[in-house]
Amino acid sequence: MSESRPDPARDPWIALRGLTHARIGLGRAGDALAGADVRALQAAHAAARRAVHAALDPARLSLAEPFLEVRSRAPDRGVFVRRPDLGRRLCPLDAARLPQAPCDVLFVIADGLSALAAARQAPGVLEAARASLPGWSIGPLIVAHNARVALGDEIGTLVGARCVVMMIGERPGLSAADSLSLYLTWDPKVGRMDSERNCLSNIHAHGGMAHDEAAFRLAWLLRGARTLGRSGVALKDDSMTARLPPPTP
Amino acid sequence: MVFYATLQGERYRFDDLRTLLARASPLRSGDELIGVAAADPVERVAAREALANVPLRAFLNEAVIPFEQCDVTRLVVERHDAASFAPIAHMTVGQWRDWLLGYEADEAALAAIARGLTPEMVSAVSKLMRNQDLIAVARKVRVVTAFRNTQGLKGRLGARLQPNHPTDDARGIAAALLDGLLLGAGDAVLGINPATDSIETGMVLVHMLDEIRRRYDIPTQSCVLTHITNTLAMIERGAPVDLVFQSIAGTQRANESFGVSLALLDEAHQAARSLRRGSVGENVMYFETGQGAAISADAHFGVDQQTLEVRAYAVAREYAPLLVNTVVGFIGPEYLYDGKQIIRAGLEDHFCGKLMGLPMGCDVCYTNHAEADQDDSDDLMMLLAAAGVNFLIAVPGGDDVMLNYQSLSYHDILTVRSVYGTAPAPEFERWLQRMALLDGRRRLNANAPLALPGFLDE
């Protein structure tokens, strides 16, 4: 007996599927899901799992500039997911090695929960962001392993940055395993609260925010933070009302 | 009070009840995160030995979180019913564990002691129980509640239909809702987690759910799971609110971080009851909880996460809820690391909630950074059904596209119902029959969208 597959031309769910990317109108085998639908979910989950456990290999990022690598106190991915506190602090050896290099903005490419996101999105966003920030002094590029968002606070303090931008992989979902977030923290120091940061999320190529768009909004937030002298809930992202025409694709 | 145990030639000391409970708790990453877990498996078993010898009365004399610092502790003390406690007042925790499993502890006996139990007693005894014990005792407890149908009856298994959408698009939600109804889900509640905090969006969704429910005369209740203050605002604006939802936790400070207080819960409970929208019952509250909530709010007082979870149930039982569920694998691997921890926690939460007298359900779920997959969810789903869980949560294909985690699918609910021979709430099952969604043997037909005609018409 062959596996039952719906005839797409007779699929009564076709119109409804356009309304949501939720997995509606799936096939059945008795009470259970049809085998093809079970495997489709397994495939998406496998991709998400791979993204969570992947290592960030900076040699494969094709970065146009030199970079410094640092590690958090979480020695491996297993500890990293269990101990967010360790992912927020630098391992002492790397903390001692970081150079003082006062600057306006420091960019950190961080694996977070998806090294895949950092690898796929961060170089493009970084290039676009540099072009959007004329007149800003930009510090040495940092690549951070087993990093949570707050790791940027310690990095920023040691380097002497006025502002740190963490470009960090988000927790993978089934629809996008390579989604990046940008977290901007003005005057970074250990102990900053999440309410003192601004975030741009969902930067990916499956209907998420494009690299140029992310860079444009980041530059808008950075100028706002500089004017206010701080980031966080006091700084609202009104970049949408101050938009430039969209860049040509 | 200090507790001691000697095991394998080594003497262990536990400084107070809070520490003893934490050390006796099964291994979980959240307790390791805050540094209260046992140092090794031997210390854990030594703690259980000491805990088994603690008289239940000791729990009435020592609070794990000071009375002065936490209104949940005060609530527990004020509500403790000495008469209900009397049948077990002479026992130690270890003796009580054996009593719970005994033949004399039947449905009536367990119901009779519920108001005499404190969360810490219930947490303590669960730590002396294996997974099969948690199932065997929980299945003796029956908690029946009602609004537009009756939940928790013998031979029944409810399902919350969760048709979330990442931008709260009403038609996208309606499509996922239709999918679930055609697969027989939704008797526990038609419940949407909105993506935004907006009251306007909440109003649109509440009206949409109510309109669909009335159009097809579905004997069920709807809920938009927004913050309780938003729901109160919607009630004031005349919205057709069936159930009031709120996430709650086991300490005053954690509840404050959720923006909720006992007074606010009282106010919302009264407001929803005053609408008199239930047809077969008046249970109007819906609570969600989950181990790790108080830790993630930095409001744990050094208490283990499972004990904190049971304290949340002491809050819930104050409001005679229609539904309570733990969202067991949602918060992440820093609290429940893998499938083993998630499964154990799900069984504990269900057992403890039922013993406290709550209509416990469960969101059997996991995130992509936990060491778990759909097989672990299958295991927990089957075990909870064996334990007599009131309801489970289901989303299209098991993939929640708004909250980005995996729950059960509508199909999973069909499978578990057929494995155990259970059915949805009787009023809802009759509706499924009336709409010709079931065949003559109570099985679900292959229902095309037109089985509920006009669902998505403008």
TrEMBL record, chain A:
Adenosylcob(III)alamin binds at residues 149, 170, 199. Its main location: other. Its EC number is 4.3.1.7. It is found in: Bacterial microcompartment. Pathway: Amine and polyamine degradation; ethanolamine degradation. Gene3D superfamilies: Ethanolamine ammonia-lyase light chain (EutC), Ethanolamine ammonia-lyase light chain (EutC), N-terminal domain. One of its GO terms (molecular function) is ethanolamine ammonia-lyase activity. Pfam families: EutC. GO terms for biological process: amino acid metabolic process; ethanolamine catabolic process. The keyword Lyase applies. GO terms for cellular component: ethanolamine ammonia-lyase complex; ethanolamine degradation polyhedral organelle. It catalyses: ethanolamine = acetaldehyde + NH4(+). Belongs to the EutC family. Catalyzes the deamination of various vicinal amino-alcohols to oxo compounds. Allows this organism to utilize ethanolamine as the sole source of nitrogen and carbon in the presence of external vitamin B12. The basic unit is a heterodimer which dimerizes to form tetramers. The heterotetramers trimerize; 6 large subunits form a core ring with 6 small subunits projecting outwards. This is Ethanolamine ammonia-lyase small subunit.
TrEMBL record, chain B:
It comes from the Bacteria. It is found in: Bacterial microcompartment. The keyword Lyase applies. The basic unit is a heterodimer which dimerizes to form tetramers. The heterotetramers trimerize; 6 large subunits form a core ring with 6 small subunits projecting outwards. PANTHER family: ETHANOLAMINE AMMONIA-LYASE HEAVY CHAIN, ETHANOLAMINE AMMONIA-LYASE LARGE SUBUNIT. Catalyzes the deamination of various vicinal amino-alcohols to oxo compounds. Allows this organism to utilize ethanolamine as the sole source of nitrogen and carbon in the presence of vitamin B12. This is Ethanolamine ammonia-lyase large subunit. It comes from Gluconacetobacter aggeris. The lineage of its organism: Bacteria, Pseudomonadati, Pseudomonadota, Alphaproteobacteria, Acetobacterales.
